[in-house]
Design a protein that fits this description.
The structure holds two protein chains of two kinds. Chain A is built from 17 helices and no strands. Chain A is mainly α. The chains are: A mainly alpha, B alpha/beta.
């Protein structure tokens, strides 16, 4: 089931009403969440429900065993990690590694046929596996007591708003929320609805409009002009942002309806002044996961600069590989590491605050930094988008050709750019808030009138539903 | 909680009202579906030649050249399911109908969007347009199939905007006798000969193709039986294709096509099949893309040929 579908439009109110009106005790609410989440996931393919159940069971059992047999805690946690990574590896990476191994052997002159399997990739497997791993690791590290309630752990791993594309929640943050009673907050629920509305707009209007153009350009990039491919690069950057952050907004907003607070996943990354800041604002929960469970155990930045650089390269390469079984993702990860290294050496690019805090517009210098960072990120995202590295080089060689100066905007591109501009303007205005349209409890100016706020909601919703073309899937479902 | 539910309810009522008004407003905007349905309704007593099928005929049969009382009711992307529904409704109400023309070619028996995931969006769109503007639900139609907002990929908002700025008669994409307007020689583009190239013609290799085959056997057989029981001529046409497409169609596919027609002739030996796939009379300028004739030169050349067939 996807958020932008009629099935979800029916599913959500039913679960919401049952949750608050019928299943009031927390244990029953958690059971309902598990059942609803399995229905939500099973709508796509029920065969893989067993996989989520098995992952949940392993994590639950490992938690209990770590607590009971503390001497063997490390081994138990390692075994759980191994089982989960084997499942992930089999479904996601088996063919990739088999093919890569065979290619390497062949290039060395030894004939080798790769044993490939016809494997269907379960939706969201990377997300829930990482979430499951965080549980047993945190129990082993004693950051969290083991849960003795299987339903709580199942709810934590399969919570439907964030099951298939995150945010990747840490057990220390989400699991305790399932363990304590929740009360309905109209303010939070209203905020949740607003955030979902904004997420739907980003996905169904901005991402899908850009996506149609990007896909058609990529299909036949060799016959496009350099300028058209430059626009494609820009549009893909907006597509993937609107798609993924749109999903995160819907997920976080949806969770608010159930009294659950999920971690912010995007904080206006395209307003970053450096790649360091960009990665603090882009897919935050994944980077936090890698920082906590890979970067810090490797030594983080406590050693020499050389060691820090190596650790950074490892983290970015792994985070690239996490996205999929393709060398393009690894190269994309390494590309970002390369951009990061100068900042590690010089110690620059650290920005704790949001750009132009308290001001209406950024300074010229800030605008320049934002544009540079966006250009670097967008260029990297083309590696991410390319079906293969040879396609990426083909795309770039066509883009950086004399036709790069043939400035022309088709009607569809103008519309897509207008949507992107609208999204950017609204997000700029609300850049210091957790999400756009977060008017707060006492809105200022014209927004203090309820009629104005309602008009915005209605116009935005009606516009989104009417103008959305294809009811496409979210990009990050494939990961 | 009550307050929140009240707000949600009010919001839902407002947006549902807007969406309903939008759908109703769209109903007032003419399109080729409603036009063709109305035309059949108004002329069912007098029509003598009825052209059905998909874009292969919709693009290039100019009924003004077929003599009086011919109508091109074909529509791009139509599956034979809807041809059958249309025939079921009208064949008994058309006393003067002499002849039904349908397309059939090298891969039609495997073609269909009913069972192909990649065509799902198209299928949803057609399903919506046929139920909303022609009154033909697909099998057990659900209420939401009626909504263009929920199902259609056609540019409904654009149509509504056009309706405000253009005369209503200019909104249908076909002429008064049903030929499609946008498949012209002038608008085909430089890469026309590589557009819509057929898949390299291999044997059916997917479950979906097999399902389509089974469905098409059923649909064609019903169409053949229906025309036979009403004593109407049924003409099947394999339309000309350009050499870029022809290169991809192998003998095996052509043999399968002939075997399918033979199977249909087993139901009604009188059906007529004309194969123009290799017809050398059709040259570059007659095509709209690799597998469609255009509505200008192509139509002007093909329609008289069809007229000769009908007049036999």
């Amino acid at each position: 089931m996807v958020f932008n579908s009629i099935q979800f439009l029916v599913f959500l109110p039913i679960v919401f009403l049952l949750y608050w009106l019928v299943f009031k005790p927390v244990r029953w609410q958690n059971l309902l969440i598990v059942v609803a989440s399995y229905v939500f996931y099973g709508w796509w393919d029920w065969r893989f429900l067993g996989l989520i159940a098995f992952t949940s069971l392993c994590s639950f059992a490992s938690g209990v065993m770590i607590e009971q047999y503390q001497r063997y805690g490390k081994a138990i946690s390692a075994a759980n990690i191994l089982i989960n990574l084997l499942i992930l590896g089999f479904f996601k990476y088996f063919n990739f590694f088999a093919n890569s191994f065979a290619q390497a052997m062949n290039s060395l002159g030894w004939h080798c046929d790769a044993p490939t399997l016809n494997i269907v990739l379960p939706v969201g497997i990377s997300f829930y596996t990482f979430q499951a791993l965080s549980y047993s690791i945190d129990v082993y590290r004693k950051k969290l007591p083991a849960s003795h309630n299987l339903i709580d752990v199942m709810a934590f791993i399969s919570f439907f708003p964030q099951l298939v594309a995150g945010p990747i929640e840490r057990a220390t943050h989400l699991l305790p929320q399932f363990q304590r009673p929740r009360t309905f907050s109209p303010t939070e629920a209203t905020r949740g609805m607003r955030q979902m509305l904004w997420g739907l707009f980003k996905k169904m209007i901005v991402a899908d409009t850009c996506g149609m153009i990007v896909d058609s350009m990529w299909e036949d990039y060799a016959s496009q002009s350099g300028f058209a491919l430059l626009l494609t690069t820009v549009l893909f950057a907006f597509q993937i942002y609107a798609d993924f952050s749109g999903y995160s907004d819907i997920a976080i907003g949806c969770a608010r309806l159930f009294g659950i607070k999920l971690t912010t996943n995007f904080k206006v990354p395209y307003f970053s002044r450096s790649i360091r800041e960009y990665w603090r604002r882009w897919h935050i929960t994944l980077m936090n996961w890698f920082t906590e469970y890979v970067y810090f155990p490797l030594g983080g930045s406590r050693g020499t600069k050389a060691r820090t650089i190596i650790n950074t390269i490892i983290v970015f390469a792994l985070s690239g590989l996490w996205h999929g079984a393709n060398w393009t993702y690894v190269v994309w990860g390494l590309y970002n590491a390369v951009l990061f290294i100068p900042l590690i050496i010089t110690g620059r690019g650290r920005y704790k605050d949001t750009v132009a805090t308290g001001k209406k517009l950024p300074s010229l210098k800030e605008a320049g930094l934002i544009l540079t960072t966006f250009a670097l990120a967008a260029f990297g995202l083309e590696i991410f988008r390319a079906p293969s590295m040879s396609d990426f080089f083909g795309f770039m060689s066509t883009m950086f050709s004399p036709s790069l100066l043939e400035v022309a905007f088709g009607d569809k591109i103008k519309v897509a750019l207008a949507y992107c501009a609208l999204m950017l303007i609204v997000e700029w205005i609300y850049r210091e808030k957790p999400f756009a349209l977060d008017f707060g409890t006492s809105p200022q100016g014209i927004l203090r009138y309820r009629a104005v706020r309602w008009t915005i909601y209605i116009v935005l919703f009606v516009f989104t539903v009417i103008m959305s073309g294809l009811h496409s899937n979210f990009i990050y479902f494939q990961f | 909680m009550k307050q929140f539910l009240k707000k949600i309810l009010i919001f839902s009522v407002i947006v549902t009202t807007i969406f309903t008004a939008y759908e109703m407003a769209l109903l007032k905007v003419p399109n080729e579906y409603s036009y063709k349905k109305n035309y059949l309704e108004e002329h069912k007593d007098s029509l003598r030649v009825l052209v059905l099928g998909n874009s292969h005929l919709a693009d290039c049969i100019d009924c003004s050249m077929l003599g009086k009382w011919a109508f091109n009711a074909a529509q791009p992307g139509r599956s034979f399911y809807y041809d059958l529904q249309l025939l079921k409704e009208y064949i008994g109400q058309m006393p003067n109908l002499q002849c039904v023309v349908l397309p059939f070619s090298y891969d039609y028996q495997y073609w269909g969007h009913l069972f192909e995931k990649k065509h799902e969006a198209k299928f949803n769109t057609y399903r919506c347009m046929y139920i909303k503007y022609m009154g033909y639900p697909y099998c057990d139609g659900e209420w939401w199939h009626w909504s263009e907002i929920l199902n259609s990929n056609f540019d409904h908002s654009g149509r509504l905007i056009d309706a405000l700025s253009k005369p209503l008669s200019a909104l249908t994409m076909c002429d008064s006798l049903g030929i499609e307007l946008d498949a012209s020689y002038e608008t085909r583009g430089d890469d026309w000969m590589t557009k819509q190239l057929p898949d390299t013609a291999a044997l059916p290799d997917s479950t979906e193709q097999r399902l389509n085959y089974r469905e098409n056997v059923k649909l064609y057989s019903e169409i053949v039986s229906l025309t036979r029981s009403h004593n109407k001529r049924l003409i099947l046409l394999a339309m000309p294709i350009y050499k870029t497409a022809r290169e991809r169609v192998n003998q095996q596919r052509l043999d399968e096509m002939n075997a399918f027609v033979k199977m249909l002739k087993g139901i009604n030996p009188d059906i007529e099949f004309y194969n123009f796939i290799d017809d050398k009379r059709f040259v570059e300028r007659d095509f709209y893309n690799s597998i469609h004739l255009n509505n200008t030169y192509g139509a002007r050349k093909f329609t008289p040929i069809l007229k000769n067939i009908i007049d036999r």
